[in-house]
Amino acid sequence: MDIGLTDNHKLYVNAAEWIGTPYRAGGDSKHGTDCSGLVSQLYKKTYRIRLSRSTDGQLKESNRIARRNLREGDLVFFTSRASRKKVAHVGIYLKDGKFVHASTGQGVIVSSLKEDYYTKHWLCGGRVK
């Protein structure tokens, strides 16, 4: 992914510092983090905004937006295999269909919204209020 002059460099630098951090349920540090912990820490450091520590809370703190309207820093929400209506996962949109998130199997990574799993489990985008 190429970072341009008009991109939010602080977001990319802060996100890069977390890449490879292992997944840990309930965690929000570089020793281990879950998805909402990563989002809350990146938002605090990048935007100086304190978000809830739960995916449900972060969804409530956002205005829902369509995938086609996503901008850098917007939140992306997904459902689980068990429920197609309840939010189960969150990440931060970067650009070009990519987002950073804490994956249970791989820790903090950048993934594509075009991947089959994320297409099937897409719930909505969220712009923090």
TrEMBL record:
Gene Ontology MF: a single term: cysteine-type peptidase activity
Q: Does the keyword Signal apply?
A: yes
Q: Which residues form the NlpC/P60 domain?
A: 5-129
Q: By its UniProt entry, which Pfam families does this protein fall under?
A: NLPC_P60
Sorted keywords for this record are: Hydrolase, Protease, Signal, Thiol protease
- GO biological process entries: proteolysis
- UniProt xrefs under InterPro entries: Murein_DD/LD_carboxypeptidase, NLP_P60_dom, Papain-like_cys_pep_sf
Q: Which family does it belong to?
A: Belongs to the peptidase C40 family.
Q: What is this protein called?
A: NlpC/P60 family protein
